[in-house]
Amino acid sequence: MNVNKAIIIGRITQDLELKAMPNGNSVLNFSVATNYSYKDASGQKVEQTEFHNVVSFGKQAENIAKYFVKGQEIYIEGRLQTRSWDDKETGKKMYRTEIVANQFEFGAKPNGAAQGGGNFAPQNNTQTNQNQNSNNNIENNNANEIEYPEEDINPEDIPF
């Protein structure tokens, strides 16, 4: 059995720009930063930031571009894919590994950001009970917005 699955929760690192492919489908390329902290041999706390390239297509790309902003936390689930092309200037073979998103969810919103729309159903046919319960609660409460927990994280403190 083969498995190609990537799951990240991090913050969007740039303003989102939705583009159209030649066939008319929407595409969104963006980056998500995740942090990892540990203590080194001397006991000092060390933080590392990892940047992940993400690509989304179709209605999912449109929804992400519509409801997310730079600095906002996002949950992405998808598969890893490596693309290659020949650089026109140098003639060298170039590579880019990215997460092709097939599901996303809202995370905590940054301070001062506009309220987002709501929780969107995954683009694939599998949903966890948690997602179904969450969607049912939103429908039962007739809520158009998600209440986000208050956080001590300031997007201006993110090192990018």
How many distinct beta strands? Answer: 6
Main sheet overview: 5 strands, mixed, barrel
Quick one: overall form?
globular
Spans with pLDDT under 50 lasting ≥5 residues? Answer: 113-144
- State the secondary-structure class: mainly beta
Q: Name the beta content range.
A: 35-45%
Radius of gyration: 18 Å
Order of helices and strands: EEEEHEEH
Q: What's the mean pLDDT score?
A: 78
Number of helices: 2
In CATH's first tier, which class applies? Answer: Mainly Beta
Characterize this entry briefly.
Helix content is 14%, strand content 40%.
Reconstruct the topology from this structure.
Layout: E1 6-12, E2 19-20, E3 26-39, E4 45-57, H1 58-67, E5 73-86, E6 93-106, H2 129-141
Parallel strand pairs: 4-6
Antiparallel strand pairs: 1-3, 1-5, 2-3, 3-4, 5-6
List keywords for this structure.
single chain; mainly beta; OB fold (Dihydrolipoamide Acetyltransferase, E2P); five-stranded mixed barrel
How does this structure look, described?
This protein has 160 residues and is mainly β. It has a single domain (6-157), classed as Nucleic acid-binding proteins (OB fold (Dihydrolipoamide Acetyltransferase, E2P), Beta Barrel), CATH 2.40.50. Helices cover 14% and strands 40% of the residues. The chain is built from 2 helices and 6 strands; from the N terminus they run ββββαββα. The chain has helices at 58-67, 129-141, and strands spanning 6-12, 19-20, 26-39, 45-57, 73-86, 93-106. The protein has a 5-stranded mixed β-barrel with strand order 1-3-4-6-5. A hairpin with a 6-residue loop joins strand 5 (73-86) and strand 6. The termini are far apart.
